[in-house]
Write a structure and sequence with these properties.
Distance between the termini: 63 Å
Radius of gyration: 35 Å
Shape: elongated
Strand content: 25-35%
Mean pLDDT: 76
Length: 614
C-alpha cells in the first residue's frame, strides 16, 4: 500500500492509498491512510466517506496519544469500530493490558470476541468466543492454513506486566463493500451490502500505561468467563433477548442470533468488538475479516445522506443508498497521475455512473465529462465500465473539481455537506535556484495544493518570497522532497523574512541650502525646507506593535529628488506635498538670485543630503 518513495524510505504512510480484495464472496475496498499528526487531513476525509472502521493497536504499546486523537475524530462522525490488537508475537505483548487501556484511555466499552493462545514467541492462535473453538496456525505458511478445534485444557496464558515505549501501529481499512456469496462477479450481482473501514498508522509518542494484575488462568477458564461477559453485553442491546436471558430461556448456542445481537450493539455504539492476532504472519486476520463482514454496517444500515438544493440552499434534500436513485457522489481526494493526469476519488452515495457520460459539479454549476472510471490498487489501476451506490472509485478527466465538491445528475442537482480542513500551522520560504526552476516550481506547487487542501502557498510581495504553509515540519519536508523528485525543481528552503516597519510619531523639520557655481549674473542659490510628519495618527491595536515606516530612514531623500519635476519661477513660493508610504513630505522652496535671472530646476543642484528628519 505504501507505494511512494518517501513512504518506503521513512517506513510510514504519507498519503492515502486504495485497493480492492475479496473475502468469502464479499468485495472489500481498502483505503490506507496515514496516522501521523502532520497528515491528519487524510484521516479526516477518509472518515467523512466511510461507514465503519477497524482500529489496530500494538499489543506492546497499547493505546497511544495519536490513536486517541483519531478515536475522537471517529466519534465526531459516529463511525462504528472494531478493535484489533496486533503483534501478539512480539516481546512484551499483553492483550489484556491493551483492552484495559482501550477502556480507560478511550472511554470505550470493549467486547472481547477472541482470546490469545499464548503470547510473544509462544503465540499459536486464538480462541473464538462466539463459536467457542480454538483456531491455531502451524508452520511457516504465513497463515495460509489453520486448524479449528476444541479449546486446549492444559494451555495457559501469561499476563506478566511489561512496561515499554514501543511504537504502535494503527491499521486502517476503509470502504468495505459486501456482496452475496453466490455472485462474486460484478455483472451477476443482484443485491449488495457494503461497509467501510479505514486504517491508521503509528503514533510516535509513548502511551500512558495501565497496570493489570491478573493471575495465570487456564484457557478454558478464561474462555468461560469472557464468554459469559460477551453474552451479557450482547443481550443488553435487545429487550426481548434480555428478558429471555433473565428467565433462563436464551439459547446461547444459537450462533446466528448471538452475531445479530453483537452487530446491533456495534452499530448502536454500545460496545466495540475486540480481536487479536499477528498481521505479520496472518495469524488472526481471518477471524478479523469474518468480524468485518458480520458486525460492521452497510450503507443500507445507515440513514440517507443529507444535502441541499443547488439553487436554493435553504431546501434540504436526501439521497438513499440505492442504484435507482439519481446519481450523487462526493469528491474526497485529488491525485496527480503522470499517465492519466488528474485522478478524482469519489464516494458514490446513490445511483450509478458510467464512463463517457457527463456529471454536474453542483458547487460550481459546471458540467464535467467522465473520461475513465478506474478501480485503484495503490498506484496501479484497472478500468471499469460503471460504478454503483456505495462504490469508491477514481475518475479520470475531470478538469475543474476540487476536494469536497459534489458530483451529481444534471437533472437532479444536490450539494452534499462539504469537508472541514485544518488550517496550516507552520511556514517556510522556498526559492528556486534558477529561472528555469521558477516556472516548474509554480506548476508543482499548484498540483500539490490541489491534492492536499491543508497545504497552502503564497507570494509575499513585501519580501518577494514564496512562502509554503503546512501542518508540520515533516509535512513540508515531504512537499519539498516531492518537488525535487516528481517535478525536478532545484530549490532552497529557509525561514521566511519578516519586514519590520518604523513610524515617526512626531513632526520633524530640516533645511537645505543649495547654490550654483556659475558666478556673475547667472549665480543662483536656493533654500529648501523639509518637514516630515505622520499622515495619520498611529492606531495601535491591543497586543500589536505600531506600524512604522522605515523607508525614510533606509533611503534619505535629497531635497532635489523630493521636489521632482517642479519648475519654480524666481522669487515664487510653492509648497509641494509628496506622499511616500504613509509619510507626508512638505517641501517649501525659495529661490534667491539677481534680478533678471531665470528660474532654476532644483534637480540640477547636487548638494549634500538634506536633513529628512531621519
Amino acid at each position: 500500500m505504501d507505494w511512494m518513495e518517501q513512504e518506503q524510505e521513512r517506513g510510514i504512510t504519507i498519503t492515502s492509498a486504495a485497493t480492492t480484495c475479496e473475502w468469502d464472496g464479499h468485495r472489500i475496498n481498502i483505503i490506507d491512510t496515514p496516522g501521523h499528526v502532520d497528515f491528519t487531513l487524510e484521516v479526516e476525509r477518509a472518515l467523512r466517506v466511510l461507514d465503519g472502521a477497524v482500529a489496530l493497536f500494538d499489543s506492546v504499546a497499547g493505546v497511544e496519544p495519536q490513536s486517541e486523537t483519531v478515536w475522537r475524530q471517529a466519534d465526531k462522525y459516529g463511525v462504528p469500530r472494531i478493535c484489533f490488537v496486533n503483534k501478539m508475537d512480539r516481546m512484551g505483548a499483553n492483550f489484556f493490558r491493551t483492552v484495559d487501556m482501550i477502556k480507560g484511555n478511550l472511554g470505550a466499552n470493549p467486547l472481547v470476541l477472541t482470546l490469545p493462545i499464548g503470547a510473544e514467541e509462544g503465540f499459536q492462535g486464538v480462541v473464538d468466543l462466539v463459536q467457542m473453538k480454538s483456531i491455531t496456525w502451524d508452520g511457516e505458511e504465513l497463515g495460509a492454513t489453520f486448524d479449528i478445534g476444541e479449546i486446549p485444557e492444559d494451555l495457559k496464558v501469561s499476563e506478566e506486566e511489561k512496561r515499554g515505549e514501543k511504537s504502535f501501529f494503527f491499521f486502517q481499512i476503509s470502504s468495505l463493500f459486501f456482496f452475496p456469496s453466490c455472485g462474486v462477479g460484478r455483472d451477476r450481482m443482484t443485491r449488495r451490502e457494503k461497509t467501510h473501514l479505514f486504517l491508521l498508522p503509528p503514533s510516535p509518542k509513548p502511551p500512558r500505561q495501565t497496570q493489570t494484575n491478573s493471575p495465570l488462568l487456564t484457557s478454558q477458564a478464561q474462555a468461560a468467563e469472557y464468554r459469559e461477559m460477551l453474552i451479557e453485553a450482547a443481550v443488553e442491546c435487545d429487550d426481548a433477548a434480555m428478558e429471555q436471558y433473565l428467565e433462563g430461556e436464551f439459547d446461547a448456542s444459537d450462533e446466528a442470533a448471538l452475531k445479530a445481537l453483537i452487530r446491533k450493539g456495534t452499530l448502536a455504539g454500545s460496545f466495540v468488538p475486540v480481536l487479536c492476532g499477528s498481521a505479520f504472519k496472518n495469524k488472526g486476520v481471518q477471524p478479523l475479516l469474518d468480524a468485518v463482514v458480520a458486525y460492521l454496517p452497510s450503507p443500507l444500515d445507515l440513514p440517507p445522506v443529507n444535502g441541499t438544493d443547488a439553487d436554493k440552499p435553504e431546501v434540504a434534500l436526501t439521497r438513499n443508498a440505492s442504484d435507482d436513485e439519481p446519481f450523487s457522489g462526493l469528491a474526497f481526494k485529488i491525485m496527480a497521475d503522470q499517465f492519466v493526469g488528474s485522478l478524482t476519488f469519489v464516494r458514490v452515495y446513490s445511483g450509478t455512473i458510467e464512463a463517457g457520460t457527463y456529471v454536474l459539479n453542483a458547487n460550481k454549476g459546471r458540467k464535467e465529462r467522465v473520461g475513465r472510471l478506474l478501480e485503484m490498487h495503490a498506484n496501479s489501476r484497472e478500468d471499469i465500465k460503471a460504478a454503483r451506490a456505495g462504490d469508491i472509485i477514481a475518475i479520470g478527466g475531470l478538469k475543474d473539481v476540487v476536494t469536497g465538491e459534489t458530483l451529481c445528475d444534471e437533472k437532479h442537482p444536490i450539494v452534499l455537506e462539504r469537508m472541514e480542513f485544518p488550517d496550516p500551522v507552520i511556514k517556510v520560504a522556498i526559492e528556486p535556484k534558477s529561472k528555469g526552476d521558477l516556472e516548474k516550481m509554480g506548476v508543482g506547487l499548484n498540483k500539490l495544493a490541489q491534492e492536499d487542501p491543508s497545504f497552502h502557498y503564497t507570494r509575499d510581495e513585501e519580501t518577494n518570497q514564496t512562502v509554503i504553509e503546512g501542518m508540520g515540519e515533516l509535512h513540508l519536508d515531504i512537499i519539498v522532497d516531492r518537488l525535487r523528485r516528481e517535478f525536478k525543481v532545484e530549490c532552497d528552503v529557509g525561514a521566511p523574512q519578516v519586514r519590520f516597519f518604523l513610524r515617526d510619531r512626531e513632526r520633524e523639520r530640516g533645511r537645505e541650502r543649495t547654490r550654483t557655481a556659475r558666478g556673475g549674473k547667472n549665480a543662483k542659490e536656493g533654500n529648501l525646507k523639509v518637514a516630515l510628519f505622520p499622515s495619520s495618527p498611529p492606531q495601535k491595536q491591543p497586543g500589536q506593535l505600531p506600524r512604522v515606516h522605515l523607508q525614510a530612514r533606509r533611503h534619505p531623500l535629497r531635497p532635489q529628488e523630493a521636489v521632482g519635476r517642479l519648475r519654480p519661477v524666481r522669487g515664487h513660493r510653492r509648497q509641494v506635498r509628496a506622499r511616500r508610504a504613509g509619510i507626508g513630505l512638505c517641501v517649501q522652496v525659495r529661490h534667491q538670485g539677481r534680478r533678471g535671472a531665470q528660474g532654476v530646476h532644483p534637480r540640477r543642484h547636487q548638494g549634500p543630503r538634506g536633513d529628512d528628519g531621519g
